[in-house]
Amino acid sequence: MNANDLLTVHFPRLRAGQKSALDKLGIATIRDLLYHFPTRYENAGPTGTISGVSHGDDVTLYGTIRNPKTRKAWKSRRPIAEALLEDSSDTIKMMWFNQPYIVKSLHDGMLVKVTGRVAGNDAKIYLANPEINRTPVRAEDVHDNLFANATEKSEQTLYPVYQESKGISSLWMYHAVKKCIASGVHEQIVDAIPKKILTRYHLPKLATSLIWIHMPRTLKDSASARKRFSFEEVFTIQLMMARRRQTKACQKALPVTVDREALASFVSSFPFKPTRAQARAINTIVDDFEKPRPMMRLLEGDVGSGKTAIAAATSYLVATSRPPERKSGTLQVAYLCPTEILAKQHFETFIAFFKDHPIQIGLITGSGCRKFPSKISREKSTHISRAQFQKWVANGEIPIVIGTHSLVQKSLSFKTLAYAIIDEQHRFGKVHRQELARKDGLTPHLLSMTATPIPRTLALTIYGDLDLTLVDQMPLGRKPVITKVLGPEKREEAYARVRKELEKGRQAYVICPRIDEPDPNKELSLQAKSVKAEAVRLEKYVFKNTSIGILHGKMKPAEKEESMKKFENGETQILVATSVVEVGVNVPNATVMLIEGAERFGLAQLHQLRGRVIRSSNQAYCFVLPESYGPTTRERLSALTKAKNGFELAEYDLSIRGSGELYGKRQWGISDVAMEALRNIKLVEAARTEADALIEKDPGLSKHSALASLAHSRESDLHGE
Ligand code: ADP
Ligand code: MG
Q: Is the pTM of this model over 0.85?
């Protein structure tokens, strides 16, 4: 066996379903398999009895399979597999939707461990799509254990539990890994981390770590293996960052003329007085403008903390600076936004900020280009052709250009781009700031803005090459949103509040997890609420004689714009939307939000959504309505009612989530194991120090080829740049 061999070479009997499951998990080679770590370990032992479960719980049960069979769903005629699970306390029904083959792997009397969520209602509960594992213990043990003292740990070996995935069971994964390790292949993989570093931080070597992480004898062994792998990942990322910092030190910026008096007078024309945090951020950026190296700064501020004004104030300086050695024209600003809605909104906001200044502002999106001011009317913007727009940007006539992705396309070139602003930059995934770089060797100053509060350790890691500025203060008079997590029976309380707010002339959001396409893995009754269906239901039964609009990602740009406009000018009272409104949408008159299926969103995302209703000094409300109301969900969501700001929430999220739920991969391109490391600031700092030292000595990593290739593969994984 060779680590780089394709898995299929050594596991020739893989079924198509298994192959596609492995594909989805990104496992192609033996090495990939060994680097696919369990999310947790379990000793076989008692975890609960059937009589003790209730609706909404996440449970692990041991018992005996009874009467497995398939049938067709009554209405949809879709296949349903079902069986009973029996233990000494009771029986419970299990159902699998669209997975009739499950029955083939079950037989009456089979002893299993079952993990899943209790669905249904209190009158009739069942387990929906539970995961089944043959238990590694004998029948007598299970039944004895069920009555044993729950705190008494048996001397059982630890069993790894891998990420659940349709087609591949945890048990299959376990046996596959065991086979690989038995062949000794894990000893052939080169340990990329230098020995000295391993010794310094008491980290086990690679071969040992691979055994300890998949089949540990003790939890201590697995913990030390996990620590090693998290160090490996964070260290690799830090190496990349160290290299980028080095490159940056050689770059040159365009000098921006800093006229502090003019800036102060511009800022004093704002309709509000900047908060201290805003003023501080503006000053920091202005200081950066005076340095010969390009700024690379991350501006992190809670939703509603007023980042747009910071962007506008600093853009003013750039748009009034003369390019070096030129008698006319100005430097240019590019303001990149993740959605068309947001780009348009910022365009309008900028027009308001700049209306008394002779500075042209452009807007470019997939659906067209606009320019302010219009030739005919000084107060208005006007539509212009793309070709004309490109010409005016290329010759420098439009100093401030706001737009979506169209802004970074090759066809749009700037004459003197000196300042690039990226709004809600976490939404861009892999947008490379290089795309905004100029071709003449001068690098624009970069301001990345985000409202996603991320823990400091994570910021140090994924944004390790950026300087960090926090906007840690809200505009005066903002009251915290009154947030309530409501169980299904309390839904009416939320509706009552919505009615009250509407009576006052205010507006409301209702957020749903889906648009309307059914999820093929779920029976209809288990589907999350959808925007389209919910809008109809609300109009018909809950809020009669109310104007209700919808907004979701599959609408055409013109439809979206229309819908947004109607909500902005108050024509629509309730906007039923997906999380597209998460990003920066600003309608100050909206003071109440309902979030359906709330457990499907991360805490940080819920916080972002909630941010849509702290846009004014009116008291705002947010009702969080999960579909299932088990203790874990309740506890996690209740953090929303306790945390004072997004940063607290982010730290909390990091601390309570178990591994396997850290969503790091999806959101940041960071594995769960590394996310665990981010709970430990010392480890992150150590990785950074070591990376700096190594890059200083061996900038090209020529003496560390294994590390170089790790770093190279990371480069393409990491999001959030
Ligand atoms: P975010 O940081 O989420 O991007 P915005 O820039 O959209 O926040 O600002 C949110 C709202 O607060 C806007 O309506 C803006 O006009 C207003 N605002 C910004 N700064 C202040 C301030 N210092 N005082 C009062 N209102 C402010
Ligand atoms: Mg914003």
A: no
